[in-house]
Amino acid sequence: MFARDWAEAVGRLGFVPVSSVEIERMLLDHTVRLARAVLAPDFTDGPGHDVGTALVESHLTEPAVLGWTVRAIGEWFVARVLPDLTDDPAARERVTALQGALAAGFSAALRDRTFSQQERLSRSVWAARNEAEQALRDSEARFRAIFTGAAIGIGIADTDGRIVEVNQALADMFGYTPAQMRQVNVSQLFHADDADGMWQHYTDLIQGRFDAARMEKLYHRSDGTAFWTNLAVSLVRHDDGRPRFTVAMMEDITDRYELQERMRFQAQHDPLTGLPNRTLFFDRLTAVLDRAGPGDRIGVCFIDLDGFKAINDSLGHDLGDRLLSVVAKRLADCVADGGHLVARMGGDEFVILVEGSTGRRDVVGVAEAALSAVARPVRIGEHQLAVSASIGIVERPVVDTDPADLMKAADTTLYWAKADGRGRWAVFDPVRSARDRAKSALAAALPAALERDELVIEYQPIVATDDQRLIAVEALVRWQHPQLGRLGPDRFISLAEETGLIVDLGDRVLATACADASRWLAEFPDAQLRVSVNLAARQASEPGLVGKVSTALRRTGLPAELLQLELTESAVMATTGEPLRSLRRLAALGVRLAIDDFGTGYSNLAYLRRLPIHTLKLAGAFVEGIRGDDPVSQVDERIVDALVRLAHALNLSVTAEAVETRHQADRLLALGCDTGQGRFYGPPQEAGGITALLRGSADVATRV
């Protein structure tokens, strides 16, 4: 369908040198070629350039044909030829690139053909002049016919720039009569906006430094309007080699040039907001870095709208696009006085380039202006919208900076701003970045560490405060890293939770802890040593939790009452629905449940008393505060007293964590705390260390 419409348009808009069947067959081939280019794994715009060249070679050179073709490819090609890619932004980008390449190929082929004709015409002109020496009258007649009848503009000037002769086509281009043109010097025709070096180039030509030049050059007409030309200038010499005349041949390419400029603008600007796009931003950034001096600095503000996806999803993409347009205009306006480049990177991401930064304060000022501009309410139709933005700021010397590193740092800093609460800016910190990279490296190495059994379990004693008996141990996982040594859980547990690996890790800890506890029971049946295993919030939400615990108990033969599962206060308070049913089923099996770090969260006591909990483990911060008779210590002691009373009122036992001194142990006993855990009673140790304790005295604290 697209090829047929294309063929009909070509026949309607210009002369077609072949039959309609042949032209449709040819354009169908071109359509297939463009479609394959869009679908190619490794995209190149070469097929577009080739199709443009082929149109000229097929003599389809009417400007209207090119205009229709470029517009039709942009508006209908994907919908009619590749309908499955209608909403694919990558396909639209490829089609845009093919549009530009087709126009460029068409222009280049047409220019080459024109130049070829110009060269043939030039040779004919001067052949006629040479023949005039033998047959002046006949050759003059032929020359005049060619000169005056040529479709392109031709002019002859001496080496002083005085115009000797012009044909009617050239005079029409400039809006003068041929007689008026002969009163003009070439220098008067040069445009004020000519590229640097253009006059020097002409001077070199008339001084004989080279014989010909070709270029695209801007001129102005007699009425002041500007036009673009393809200009070919040749030097004619005397017999002794001295420069004599210049012959200029011009083609008005204003329409084609403006089309190319529009295509270039479209390729470098965002169609929705009109802002520079990612391509133009990186071109500008690269140019700034390349030309910067030793002391120059640069700044980047990487902006992301907070909550834009929710607006887009709930109110529709049309309203979302209108909101983006408003935000884009506000951003451009708020930095207009500073002349900073604002670009849309895609989606709801924008970037401001601060060239010649004077320091961090300068770029922070730009970021704060951007935040204020975005934060103002936006009225779109019947909707009053309020959005905020997060901004990642990078400000640094230009030396040793490259675009990729700069934008990677900006992206990292944008993530920090969002993580810190959104609606704010954050400045790049190399120390924090190094920590994040180290954290990422650990996260990447964690799955392999689990496979290589680098994660080991240590057990910390939990002791009765009254008689110092070892009654339980808490299983604590450590990472025996091949380069970093033994890492505590604070270095990697949060990473396991973020990546979802916490479930597999938790399963392995549970299985190992149950197996070790079962061996202690077999060797020391009177000790009835209980093992306590931490349960992450994600594990508590796992549908198969009860089955996993039951399997671990069955395989190891450990009685359910000798297993305790610990959940943090926040995780327990969040248990509803299936997770709560799982906890109740575990309690029904006989498994003990404990709340870890109690006192640091926000417990609903009415909800707490309905949970199948057996033990509260007091947060170590309260125990650490019990140091002596100072007022602060007395406050912490009263808090512990209140928590112990609360737990006992709910028929729950109490374990105090982080017990480090004899004084703390004595005070906890006096306050009625049931058990204690900490360095005073014993450090975390491998299973063999617990076995040794069980073989020795029951008074654990006397051996620390």
From TrEMBL:
Taxonomic superkingdom: Bacteria
Residue span, PAC domain: 213-265
InterPro entries for this protein: Biofilm_reg_signaling, EAL_dom, EAL_sf, GGDEF_dom, Nucleotide_cyclase, PAC, PAS, PAS-assoc_C
Residue ranges annotated for the EAL domain, each copy included: 439-698
Gene3D superfamilies: 3.30.70.270, EAL domain (3.20.20.450), PAS domain (3.30.450.20)
Domain PAS: 139-209
UniProt signal peptide: none
Domain GGDEF residues, every copy: 296-430
Protein name per Swiss-Prot or TrEMBL: GGDEF domain-containing protein
